[in-house]
Amino acid sequence: MKTHLRYLIFLSCLAAALLAPLSACSDTASIERVEPPFWWTGFRETELQLMVYGEGVASLEPNLDHTGVEIIR
């Protein structure tokens, strides 16, 4: 049983080591930060403008699934 567990752990580590460089080289967008950082649902104001910063964020399509909240462009 210990040998089987060690084998599974070894395969998991090997897969992670082999797949990590693939995700680092991909051309995906990454969100670095969102301003203001202190917004939440139930916010007093009826409209809120969020600024999203990061590499390639212009290629992203914003979406959400929450009752009473919508994205206005």
Per-chain topology:
Layout: H1 2-25, E1 30-35, E2 51-55
Antiparallel strand pairs: 1-2
What does this structure look like?
There is one protein chain. With 73 residues, the chain is of the alpha+beta class. The protein has one domain. It has one helix and two strands; from the N terminus they run H-E-E. The mean pLDDT is 74.
Strand adjacency order, main sheet: 1-2
Rounded average pLDDT:
74
Question: What is the number of E strands?
Answer: 2
Helix content: 25-40%
Structural class: alpha+beta
Head-to-tail CA distance between termini: 57 Å
Unreliable spans are none
Give the radius of gyration. 20 Å
Number of domains: 1
Q: Describe the sheet with the most strands.
A: 2 strands, antiparallel
What shape does the CA trace take? Answer: elongated
How many DSSP helices?
A: 1
From N to C, what is the helix and strand string?
A: HEE
Into which percentage range does the β-strand content fall? 15-25%
Short description:
The protein has 73 residues and is an alpha+beta fold.
Structure keywords:
alpha+beta; single chain; 73 residues; 33% helix; 2 strands
